């Protein structure tokens, strides 16, 4: 799937307008511990998380994550948004919780 399809499935809102929308998404993983993301998420996956700090962007880059979805309608601080803009990684917020989003993506 692509990022537009992901946004539609999770009923999300893209938070950074210069994101690379051409990224392919071939899997998903949900975690709030970034060490779990680094240990187990597959490349080109979407990361579902409740964390909003800039570390989610850095971790996503290291793990070759294609997009990040913030659960429960969370809005990240300006530092996180700025880093997502620089790195062009799609940062999306969705009103649904982690469980619901995992089910929708499965």
How do the helices and strands line up, and which of them pair or pack?
Elements: H1 3-10, E1 13-14, E2 27-30, H2 34-40, E3 45-49, H3 55-62, E4 67-70, H4 78-87, E5 91-93, H5 98-105
Parallel strand pairs: 2-3, 3-4, 4-5
Antiparallel strand pairs: 1-5
Give an overview of the whole structure.
It is a single chain. With 106 residues, this protein is an alpha/beta fold. 39% of the residues lie in helices and 17% in strands. The protein contains five helices and five strands, in the order H-E-E-H-E-H-E-H-E-H. The chain has helices at residues 3-10, 34-40, 55-62, 78-87, 98-105, and strands at residues 13-14, 27-30, 45-49, 67-70, 91-93. The protein has a five-stranded mixed beta sheet, with helices on both faces. Helix 3 (55-62) runs parallel beside helix 4 (78-87). The chain is globular and about 30 Å long. 36% of the residues are buried. The model has no long low-confidence stretch (mean pLDDT 96).
């Amino acid at each position: 799937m692509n990022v537009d399809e992901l946004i539609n499935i999770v009923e999300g809102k893209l938070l950074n307008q210069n994101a690379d929308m051409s990224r392919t998404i071939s899997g998903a993983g949900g975690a709030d511990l970034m060490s779990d993301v680094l240990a187990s998420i597959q490349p080109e996956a979407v990361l579902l998380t409740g964390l909003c700090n800039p570390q989610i962007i850095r971790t996503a880059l290291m793990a070759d994550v294609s997009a990040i979805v913030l659960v429960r309608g969370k809005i990240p601080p300006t530092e996180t948004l700025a880093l997502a803009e620089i790195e062009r990684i799609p940062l999306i917020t969705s009103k649904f919780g982690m469980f619901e989003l995992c089910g929708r993506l499965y």
